Structures are given as structure tokens and as C-alpha cells.
From TrEMBL:
Organism of this sequence: bioreactor metagenome
Domain named Peptidase M50: residues: 121-156
The protein's required cofactors: Zn(2+)
Intracellular or extracellular location(s): Cell membrane
Transmembrane domains' residue ranges: 50-67, 87-109, 121-142, 174-197
Main location (coarse class): membrane
Annotated protein name in UniProt: Peptidase M50 domain-containing protein
């Protein structure tokens, strides 16, 4: 029963984090000149339009998963290299801003929520939303396909980096799978999550 309750307390953060992340990719792409996300109905915060069932289940059960990727046609960008980097970083940046906003709500909750069961539930939902958004941010910044980080690094590094990704694409995806299965991802991103979380707690009043 406690396991089910804990998962329900995490659910709002997962749904919001996924929706914010994918919406931001789509919004940035449209602003850069590619209308594909709008045509495909991805410019919405409705999680139904962004959830990949298997990825959502993995995220809910194991803490790592994926959403339905926003389709982008970089040929519509005015400056493909720059614009692809902007679109790729928009998702993680949106998760960071969402985490910061909910840290602010968390501080308000600390000061004004009554110390009872309902107040504790609200506090845990707020904290879980902060953590989930930081997990999504840090996870997607890992520079391994198909995550956002490899698009960002490729856009910065240019042809040599893209050629490396193209040559070793399958190997890198397999390496990512091994990292997830053997909990390597958690070891990689946990220090960054803790650092950003503590920074937000310190800076936001």
C-alpha cells in the first residue's frame, strides 16, 4: 500500500516534467522556423500527447524513462546547427525552470502549510516534482544518443562529432542501455542533481 501511495505522490511531477520538456522542444522548434510540432499537435501541456506508454512505465517504476519524441525537420531552420542546439537544450532548460518554480512553492509550503497529513502530502508532491524535473534535465543532458545532450554536443562540435555519433551510434545506444540496467546513470547524474537542488534551495527564498 505504501508503495502505491509513493508512486501516486510522484505521478504529478512525472506528468508535468514530461509535458514541459516535450512542449518546450516543440515550441522552440516552431520559433526556429519548423512548424512540424504544431502540425503534429505537440504544442500542448496535455500529457496524453507526450506519453510513450513503455517509457512512462519505466519512469514511474525505475526513475528513468522516455516520452514520445517531438519530431523536428531541421531543414526548416534558418541556421540548422545553431537552431538544433537551441531546440535540444530547450527541454532540459524548461525542466530546470520548473524545478526552480517548485522550489519556490516548497519554500512557501514550509512556511504556510499546516503540519498535518494533507500538508505532508502536498509537501511531498512539491518536492517530488522538483526532483523529477532535475532528473529529467540531467538525464537528457547526457551526450549519448538518443538524448538531447548528443544533439547539443553535435551542434557545438560540428561534423567531426556528428561523424563520431554516426559511426558508433548503435554502440553508444547499447552503452546507454547497460548504464540504465546496471544503475550507472544514477551514479553519473546524482552529483549534478544534488548540486543543482542544493543551489536552488539556497538561492530561492
Amino acid at each position: 500500500m505504501n508503495y502505491l501511495i509513493n508512486k501516486l505522490l510522484v505521478l504529478p511531477g512525472i506528468l508535468l516534467g514530461i509535458s514541459i520538456h516535450e512542449f518546450s522542444h516543440g515550441y522552440a522548434a516552431v520559433k526556429m522556423g519548423d512548424d512540424t510540432p504544431r502540425i503534429q499537435g505537440r504544442l500542448t501541456l496535455n500529457p496524453i500527447h507526450h506519453i510513450d506508454p513503455m517509457g512512462f512505465l519505466c519512469l514511474l517504476l525505475f526513475g528513468f524513462g522516455w516520452a514520445k519524441p517531438v519530431m523536428i525537420n531541421s531543414r526548416n531552420f534558418k541556421n540548422p546547427r545553431r537552431d538544433d542546439a537551441i531546440v535540444s537544450i530547450a527541454g532540459p532548460l524548461a525542466n530546470l525552470l520548473t524545478a526552480a518554480l517548485f522550489v519556490f512553492f516548497l519554500k512557501l509550503a514550509d512556511n504556510y502549510l499546516p503540519y498535518n497529513q494533507l500538508g505532508q502530502i502536498i509537501w511531498e508532491v512539491l518536492q517530488n516534482t522538483v526532483i523529477i524535473n532535475l532528473v529529467l534535465m540531467m538525464f537528457n543532458l547526457i551526450p549519448i544518443p538518443p538524448l538531447d545532450g548528443h544533439h547539443i554536443l553535435g551542434s557545438i562540435g560540428g561534423a567531426k562529432v556528428w561523424n563520431f555519433y554516426y559511426k558508433y551510434y548503435d554502440h553508444l545506444r547499447f552503452a546507454m542501455l547497460l548504464l540504465i540496467v546496471f544503475n550507472g546513470v544514477s551514479l553519473i547524474i546524482s552529483p549534478g542533481i544534488n548540486f543543482v537542488y542544493n543551489m536552488l534551495i539556497t538561492l530561492i527564498f
